[in-house]
Amino acid sequence: xxxxxxxxxxxxxxxxxxxxxxxxxxxxxxxxxxxxxxxxxxxxxxxxxxxxxxxxxxxxxxxxxxxxxxxxxxxxxxxxxxxxxxxxxxxxxxxxxxxxxxxxxxxxxxxxxxxxxxxxxxxxxxxxxxxxxxxxxxxxxxxxxxxxxxxxxxxxxxxxxxxxxxxxxxxxxxxxxxxxxxxxxxxxxxxxxxxxxxxxxxxxxxxxxxxxxxxxxxxxxxxxxxxxxxxxxxxxxxxxxxxxxxxxxxxxxxxxxxxxxxxxxxxxxxxxxxxxxxxxxxxxxxxxxxxxxxxxxxxxxxxxxxxxxxxxxxxxxxxxxxxxxxxxxxxxxxxxxxxxxxxxxxxxxxxxxxxxxxxxxxxxxxxxxxxxxxxxxxxxxxxxxxxxxxxxxxxxxxxxxxxxxxxxxxxxxxxxxxxx
Length: 420
Prior knowledge:
The chain is 69% helix and 5% strand. By secondary structure, the chain is mainly α.
């Protein structure tokens, strides 16, 4: 057995250090967890028959085979992992556990390496005196802005666990919508890929086979085949042009994003596009309604909740309209009246909000409104993606068919060249 030096959090939130005897570093970590400690640094003593072996920084887990190890050390969580993390955290907090105890459980044995690292980092920040939303703000690449804003408002109202549960439901709904869209896009993606393969075969296999016949006869390739032959001869120039054009586009877009006026104009144009505009409005309306309902259910004051919810509207043009509508509420205007005739919320949603105001159940009613808007948005997106498949089939089939007809026409015209 060897001796290991460790530093760990106790159940009381203090830092404990000392030595422990174990067969290896992984056994030492397991023993510390079994003793109710959360290790964040474990290393073998230098004079104990081996080199220093840091292994449990941020609550490292036991070693795994090379096939089970992470390919990289990225700490970013996917939407599915973030939803699961939030669900577990909300359940633990609602059960009466303190945040530090909840994070020790989340980062304990059985957790994935990324989840364990994140839980231990949040634990460290919380033990240092930060609010949970402030600790999460140190990881903006993991926790979205609307996540942190809703949580911060919920903490103000003393309903952290309840808000976390609502956020988990929101993330689960987003995950469901994303999965459905990705599933619907599989067939169009296969169509596009196969069409690209067909074009590559025609350009780099068929055309080079028949081009010498026309060159020997001093005749140009018919139709579009001549232009495709030029594309083959000058593919490097075309590739460089595409690369330079892409880099220029990225540079221009990065500068455009820095201009608030230009972005405001772009967002205004988005709303004016017939189909896209409705989808943008529905997305922002669902986000606003769900955030506002979540905060009101968590007993956050109305004005504070509305300011937080409106800050989550990402479209700058719509954000300004939401701000104007909200400004009418402190003047005594009911919420449903403030949003009338501005086109931000559907008429049916406004009637539901009016009922919620009359019955004193505005928060739950807003959550129902958000569910209706999000369900309709999901149906519209699925309808558009479903319509995309036959349109792509017709467009790609027609293009490839026309290209093949050009090739067949060139092949058949070889007989005429032979008799000349």
